[in-house]
Design brief:
Aspartate Aminotransferase, domain 2; alpha/beta; Aspartate Aminotransferase, domain 1
Length: about 375
């Protein structure tokens, strides 16, 4: 028997069979009525998932591409931009803005910290920046920031907020219009249950106005060109048409479940995973609260190499979980619970970790993790 595969990382995430089947449909032309209908449907559904009436632009790229589009459309060379970092992705956006010659005003926190609105307000007023780059769910640590309060600080200062919601949109609440978020960026391969390759940005009127004055060069990422083409039901360049067909199928599933139900499911899965890990005697790295609904970061017992654990799970059981970064790489592993994930994915992951930890010489009470995860899940739903 070929080895069964389990993809339990916080991106890419597993894809439902209906979505995979949609990927396998014959290729259609991107300037045809067939495509136009699917594309318009997908954009309309994206607006529902983004909770916005703003334009949502579709790019064929990973999430980073759509984030880069925000930088080149909103900023000018040498312009100050506040970039908040509390983990790997905030640091990536600092490097991105620096690569385009912007003056990065870094607001740095320790990995795993929660950014604070008063700090954002202070740095905004000191720097005179007109744009701020923020991360909603910091996937490297599992921290979901209180993005509503950070965006409020931006709005109070008249500053445009760009929010990396790549691992959060669809998993945890994000009210683009109600909270006044100017730009929300996400990708197809996380909570949107679609293979990697598409990325999206919603853009407020204020951000559109800013983009007309900003002078960084842009071509592939030109928002105005994308908007002009989307008005005709297409894109400026050949999009990943099969992914758009798949996305449309995935969005139908998400909206049929209902966003609130999806959010509640993610909370229940987070509780289950944390309860299971703790019952196994493991220490959590990600926060132990319902905010951490995207992934659970867990530390291996002292003396157990997290990389060796992960590779063994992959090679012996076909289970892929995520590792850690930097000085914590030897201890941290992360189990994703975003998108097409249910409680049995969690018990599978915990069960496999248990098997392998015992194999590696740790004392773990057999079955304790799975039992606790199931109990926490049952209590949550
Ligand atoms: C996955 C992820 C990204 C990177 O997206 P790519 O699609 O790999 O470019 C950026 N930010 C966060 C928070 C992510 O989780």
């Amino acid at each position: 028997m070929s080895q069964k595969r389990y993809l339990l990382t916080p991106g890419p995430t597993p894809v439902p069979p209906e979505v995979l089947a949609a990927m396998a449909e014959p290729v259609i032309h991107h300037r045809s009525p067939d495509f136009k209908d699917v594309f318009n449907g997908a954009v309309e559904r994206l607006q529902q998932v983004f909770r916005t009436r703003n334009d949502v632009l579709v790019f064929t790229s990973s999430g980073t591409g759509a984030f880069e589009s925000s930088v080149v459309n909103l900023l000018s060379p040498g312009e100050p931009v506040v970039v908040v970092s509390h983990g790997e992705f905030g640091t990536r956006w600092q490097k991105l803005a620096a690569a385009f010659g912007c003056e990065v005003v870094a607001l740095d926190y320790a990995w795993g910290a929660q950014p604070r609105a008063e700090d954002v307000a202070r740095v905004l007023s000191e720097s005179g920046a007109r744009v701020a780059l923020l991360v909603h769910s910091e996937t490297s640590t599992g921290v979901v920031s209180d993005i509503r309060s950070l965006v409020e600080a931006c709005n109070d200062a008249g500053v445009i907020s760009v929010v990396d919601a790549i691992s959060s949109l669809g998993a945890v609440p994000l009210e683009t219009d109600d909270w006044g978020v100017d730009v929300v960026v996400t990708g197809s391969q996380k909570a949107l249950m679609t293979p990697p390759g598409l990325a999206f940005a919603s853009i407020s009127e204020r951000a559109w106005a800013r983009s007309q004055e900003a002078t960084l060069p842009r071509f592939y990422w030109d928002w105005a060109n994308a908007r002009k083409n989307q008005a005709k039901g297409s894109t400026p360049f050949t999009p990943a048409t099969s992914l758009v067909v798949a996305l449309n199928a995935a969005l139908e599933l998400i909206l049929a479940e209902g966003l609130e139900s999806a959010h509640a499911r993610h909370v229940a899965l987070g509780r289950a995973c944390r309860a299971g890990a703790k019952a196994m005697g493991l220490e959590l790295y990600s926060p132990d609260n319902d905010g951490a609904a995207v992934l659970t970061g867990i530390l291996t017992p002292e003396g157990i190499d997290a990389v060796a654990l992960r590779l063994a799970l992959r090679d012996r059981y076909g289970i892929t979980i995520a590792g850690g970064h930097g000085d914590i790489a030897g201890r941290l592993f992360r189990i994703g619970h975003i998108g097409y994930v249910d409680i049995f994915d969690i018990t599978t992951a915990l069960g496999a970790v248990e098997l392998q930890l015992v194999e590696m010489g740790t004392t773990v009470q057999r079955g304790a993790g799975g039992a606790a995860a199931l109990a926490a899940y049952a209590a949550a739903v």
